[in-house]
Design a protein that fits this description.
The structure is a single chain. The chain is an alpha/beta fold and 167 residues long. The protein is built from five helices and five strands, in the order E-H-E-H-H-E-H-E-H-E. The chain has a five-stranded parallel sheet, sandwiched between helices. Helix 1 links the parallel strand 1 and strand 2. Helix 4 crosses helix 5. The longest helix has 18 residues.
């Protein structure tokens, strides 16, 4: 079963990556080998503590609230989730490290994240989480630019390599 992990911070920029993730899941899905998509949202531990303090909720209650926010985000961003078996994973920790660990545990075939769009210089930089993941990806990694068009039609992949073992 091919597994795709979508790392999202629920931003507008992450919506384009979500469209790609769901599109790829639909493209590679087959009756004999169904694709599975994990929508992963990583909450730094200090942010979770702050959320719990402000809302006066337990961690479980906050995770329920985040799950509701993810479902609402998918709907608001008009992400087409039809015909895709997906689940939501909410984890606490450092974003890049926790996403990598999640990919390893899920035996992920793809990790898809969005490129940061914050600030005027954002077009020149990937964003800290995407950049960290790009240095040591836990599996094949797709970093989606927020200005990319959604996947439409067959998936085409170009790969560069330098004849080293890691390539």
């Amino acid at each position: 079963m091919p597994t795709i992990v979508l790392g999202t911070d629920l931003s507008d920029n992450a919506a384009t990556a979500a469209r790609w993730a769901f599109g790829i899941a639909r493209t590679i899905h087959s009756a004999d080998d169904p694709a599975r998509l994990v929508v992963a949202h990583i909450v730094p531990s200090d942010e979770m503590q702050l959320r719990q303090t402000i809302a006066d909720h337990s961690e479980d209650k906050e995770q329920e609230e985040i799950r509701r926010q993810i479902e609402q985000w998918l709907e608001n961003e008009e992400i087409d989730t039809t015909d895709v078996d997906y689940g939501i994973n909410i984890s606490i920790g450092r974003k890049a490290k926790t996403l990598a660990h999640l990919c390893e545990n899920a035996d992920a075939h793809w990790l898809i994240v969005g490129k940061s769009g914050r600030g005027r210089l954002a077009k020149f930089f990937l964003g800290s989480t995407a950049e960290d993941l790009a240095l040591r990806p836990p599996c094949p990694l797709l970093i989606v630019d927020p200005d990319d068009e959604p996947l439409d039609g067959p998936l085409r992949v170009v790969s560069a390599f330098d004849l080293t073992n890691s390539a």
